[in-house]
């Protein structure tokens, strides 16, 4: 799929064949990038998180601003933007435990801003969404109480795009890929609870909203849900360069807004 990105002063547009309207993605301002670049961040994630980190470098490069040092850490570090792989995909509870353990170790010391995210594979149609939400809320409350000087950000779970023909055939044969409508309905339920709980704090990084670009809404069995915009992915789940920059932009703006450097 051909994707065309047009850089603007405050935003850039993405359009692909078949779309009536381009996807607009707002850039962080230069001052936001400067503040975020001086903020010590700890980010817990898995594979889509790698895409987002690639996007961080891309956003700085596109705006001709020196990027912060990004480094995977196991202990203390001098890097500005630190990240760690938490748990394993498909086990959201294990990811929560892993992030809490990281925050309780050397890597969690002297961190200005911290957050973790769930991947699309962590929530699907068979997931007990309420149990995952309750566990996330409890874990975040625990790490916030233990680290009062760290500003924690909250995140929605990542999405997938619509199934392609191959995926639909597999689903019809009973070999689901966790990328179907019912799977994204479950993610929408989780994300709705996250938004209701945390949006008013001003510290929500709405990954799902950035991925859908507010344009890709669907309906399934009476439930409305969003999907990952096809312009922002290369495999229906992970982010391409444009998608990486779109989500990274939201993350960097949130980091700047809640940085003690500001």
UniProtKB/TrEMBL annotation:
InterPro entries assigned: SGNH_hydro_sf
Top-rank taxon: Bacteria
Protein's recorded name: GDSL-like lipase/acylhydrolase family protein
